[in-house]
Amino acid sequence: MDLLKQFLLGSTKADHSSSEKQSEELKQESLEKKNAELKQEHNQLVELKQVHDQFLKKFSPGGFCNTCFREKMVLLGFSPLLIALLIVNFVSSRSLIKNVSMKSIVGVSVISNYMCCCEPRIDVVGYVTNGVWQQICKAKTEVTLNPDTAGPGLAVNVDDSLVKFTGEREAEWPSVLGREVFTSGRHYWEVEVGEKGYWAVGVSTHPGEKIIPEKPEEGYWLVRLSARGRKYEAVGKSLVTHPPPSLQESQSSLPLTLEHKLYKVGMYLNYWKGELSFYNIYDADNRYAMHTFKYNFTEVVYPVFSPGCHDKAPLKITRFDSTSNSPFRITI
């Protein structure tokens, strides 16, 4: 009997010992798995921070490109939510990060609360960084002139890419519209102004007018050069981003000071966002934001161009896929 009790007791102890050992092994395995996950998450965060720091060094504070940063993070396998949180500086503690799944899928509507999708920041006057410029150039639009809308004394070449003044002076700013019209979306086009001392470019909502008023108000958003090449100004009755609104509400024109001489003008229209920005395209690697109009566009918008009436040098629309040497038509 004693032998049986000893056997049973020994067997129970052995089973208990075996169970404890298995439990410890499971705990150890779970701990190792958790440590591995934490290490992987830590490595991802380190990599994320390194890329983030690289982008901060590459882009200036005014030209940081959220879109480029987001695309890079997606390629690295990070979740959209984590990327959005980092960009807006919501990542402030480890407790926040650990609750965000690295593989979670978040709807676009959630992301849009944190960032502007595919949209460059254009409300900063000065040098435009490569990242911002790449986004703007994605909106390149081929614009051609509509000779049927040309004002008095203007000549448009046969392929509708150049306009110049050839007649006798009847008005200060005879103009011609672009054939393309904009009612939505994003559009970017360029005009070579060269050494001209007078010109005006921008957009208009007046399809029937062939002369830009000397003091345009409703329906015109322009940058122009006058006074024999000495006076750059933004012209139009709408709120602009610079200077602050309190300084502009009573004026329809605003003098512009440029760091570099202007030979080519870039125009970027975001119809949906209600913004029209002008750029000094100094050369292939240097471009500068000059001015941004803000306006809630609701009508059809037309590109508008005026070579002025004081010289016969042309305005030339940049063709992104070709060059032009066509002869001119004369408008009487």
From TrEMBL:
Keyword Ligase set for record: no
Protein name as annotated: E3 ubiquitin-protein ligase TRIM39-like isoform X2
Ranges for domain B30.2/SPRY: 123-324
Presence of keyword Coiled coil: yes
Coiled-coil stretches: 19-51
Keywords for this protein: Coiled coil
A Pfam family assignment: SPRY
Originating species: Acipenser oxyrinchus oxyrinchus
Domain of life from the UniProt record: Eukaryota
Transmembrane segments: none
